[in-house]
Amino acid sequence: MMSLTLQRIPVFTTPLFCRWSSKVFQRHCSRMKMRVSDALASKETGTNVRIQGWVRSVRPQKDNLFLNVNDGSSLQPLQVVAGSHLNTRDLTFGCAVDITGTLEKSPSKKQNVELQAQRIEVVGECNPVDFPFKIKERHSLEYVRQFPHLRCRTNAFSSLLRIRSEASAAIQSFFRDNSYLQIHTPVITSNDCEGAGELFQVKPAGDKNDSDDPNPHFFSVPAYLTVSGQLHLEVMAGAFSAVYTFGPTFRAENSQSRRHLAEFYMVEAEIAFTESLDDLMKDQVDLMLKRKFNIISYTEAIDILKSSSQNFTFSTEWGCDLQTEHEKFLVKHCGNVPVFVINYPYELKPFYARDNQDQPKHTAAAVDLLVPEVGELCGGSLREERLELLSQRLAHAGLKDTYEWYLQLREFGSVPHGGFGMGFERYLLCILGLHNIKDVIPFARFSHSCLL
Amino acid sequence: MMSLTLQRIPVFTTPLFCRWSSKVFQRHCSRMKMRVSDALASKETGTNVRIQGWVRSVRPQKDNLFLNVNDGSSLQPLQVVAGSHLNTRDLTFGCAVDITGTLEKSPSKKQNVELQAQRIEVVGECNPVDFPFKIKERHSLEYVRQFPHLRCRTNAFSSLLRIRSEASAAIQSFFRDNSYLQIHTPVITSNDCEGAGELFQVKPAGDKNDSDDPNPHFFSVPAYLTVSGQLHLEVMAGAFSAVYTFGPTFRAENSQSRRHLAEFYMVEAEIAFTESLDDLMKDQVDLMLKRKFNIISYTEAIDILKSSSQNFTFSTEWGCDLQTEHEKFLVKHCGNVPVFVINYPYELKPFYARDNQDQPKHTAAAVDLLVPEVGELCGGSLREERLELLSQRLAHAGLKDTYEWYLQLREFGSVPHGGFGMGFERYLLCILGLHNIKDVIPFARFSHSCLL
């Protein structure tokens, strides 16, 4: 392994080699470098600092020049005050600046401190005519969506991405604090977890998939982009008891809807030694904001829908899947609070859902969480851990050979277990009160759009 | 948005709806549930606890039965002691158990506490003849690799995955503590960052890509799996100053080597207002263990290679890329410590690398970090932020139209910036002293292999 001591090295010429200590890195200028958020929170006035960022406003007055400078560390910019002589023609909205000065208490009530500039350097110009965002103008989310390479420079979208980063860290902390092991489940997979269509296939670029080739696949088998890490998490729950994954998931859905993306993030958890949907729902409640939730059974949901006076497009017969219109109605009916719907018809659910053995109305131990505006936010189930029942169902579906490895998980030390998945972008829509999923992801991918 | 108060809901039958508080969830049994790691660390003896896990050893003696139970929370199992009458035929290596008893101080020096069992339930049996891992046997990493769905149940691989999870959290903390914003860069992309081949293409499964179809692509353009999030991070560095991404990356490399995977994790960072490779190298040093590093230029590296008596397979002329054999030699030559190689020939580097303008030996401000055993661990560069130079180079490569958006980043508030990427699995090999990259990822994908 890597040796811990530095050995003397024969040198060819001087100075061919140099050795580093962190002190070498501490250059004069970086010692005074400060991020805007730190400057804003600073209690010490009179400090010499250097700020680097982008100009968000320029107000030249007779004697003084006022700038707002943002470096992405916070929504609030730092106010910079300078003598008029520091004003230059290229000091425009959107340009990049490097400023040194002293932090002083601000006379204004808008901020605690301001930067009295001694030097302003325009590092990168920005032609205000060509720049798609205009000073003092409030651009709609729809408008800025046209500029995926620039929209992070707007207040609204940069704030959303800061919240996304925070939410993402909070989710990781939640699972870590609760002793879940993080598993990087694979993006490329040879199985189709949901048994559904709408998969993306993966092939080396330029691969003609020549049918004369005896082994036409890069991976020897057809490979797809994952629709869920669940089956891989089940493998891991059989060793670590509680595991989660948080990463990209894919659907080749030909949809332009404001709730769908071809690439989205999903939080998935799998818990061993879990025997009831209650345990699963508890984790979902903990992960969400602490609030009250309702629980209704699928059968009750159908009763509610059938008793309503609303004309639905899709069938509300027992055995039919709940459609968006049904979900919306149920959430509204329950008083616009999140609703868990449990125990779905057995035939509607994939092979892994646990059989409730409650014929004649045969259900599986599956749960969906419906929330206002967004609709389905989480989905989960107990998994069939009984070898005999799972084996029968897979045989019935002609999948026994494909899932031999999955059956083996039940053959060797099987335990009751279950899990759930939550769409991260839908979660963000939910906590932010936004409507379009394209506004809460850095680079949106959906049918007919893969910009950058 | 979601209402904060629970409204009364009209009910159809009782109890159609129930409202939840977290107390409802606290069932009797879960109050005494304890993870093995917590039990092992417990100072309180006489406590009633319930342990759920898998049996790692069974030693029946005349009066007593000794079990080792592991639930994945630690390498060390919990010793369980029970009267012989609790022994059953199905209590075998690998079976799943649910045990209640009292934690007592252990008379043995091997552990602080042991569990005196009052009840042992075999939840899931495990036939020791069919189970591929045998009691008391030490299975090689090569052997367990054949069982991707079961290898997490071995001591070695479960420990590796716990370390992977910790390392992953530590990397996130490092960036968070240093005010980097996490960006989820897309997996599906329409650009090819490295300008190289070996890309995976993405299409909806069953898509025949009929050439008669006027718009044969799901995304309207050909789409690929990302080889790097760099260009997307550059977009974000232009607003947030310091950003990083940590996620899966792909290469359709037809390699069975112990250092390559088709899907691997990469940590990438991009930093605005960075003007020297020193800054980039500093971050890489901070991210790695604190230790001494060497720095040599590419030109010096070539001098070293040419002066050596070793016969290399590949050319060591100035302008040629460094091959694995060269990297190994350089690291060894420097005394088996990590070596940064800086300032590579301009023509060897992609369009985004910053021109050092140092003709006749024309170089770009790029850096690779070579480490013992593993070879290339990190790669980074300053990016060309000067519109004119970048524009010329893209025009020369016939890529100006494709990268119009990238040029615009230089048109509007451009700043000197740079970044680097580190292969996470190679990092793990490096800190763990392991040799095969397939042993440090939960599910390995490489040419001709995509199990599960």
TrEMBL record, chains A, B:
Alphabetic keyword roster: Aminoacyl-tRNA synthetase, ATP-binding, Ligase, Nucleotide-binding, Protein biosynthesis
GO biological process: asparaginyl-tRNA aminoacylation
Domain Aminoacyl-transfer RNA synthetases class-II family profile positions: 161-442
Keyword field contains Ligase: yes
Molecular-function GO terms, alphabetical: asparagine-tRNA ligase activity; ATP binding; nucleic acid binding
Pfam families: tRNA-synt_2, tRNA_anti-codon
GO cellular component, one term: mitochondrion
This protein's name: Aminoacyl-transfer RNA synthetases class-II family profile domain-containing protein
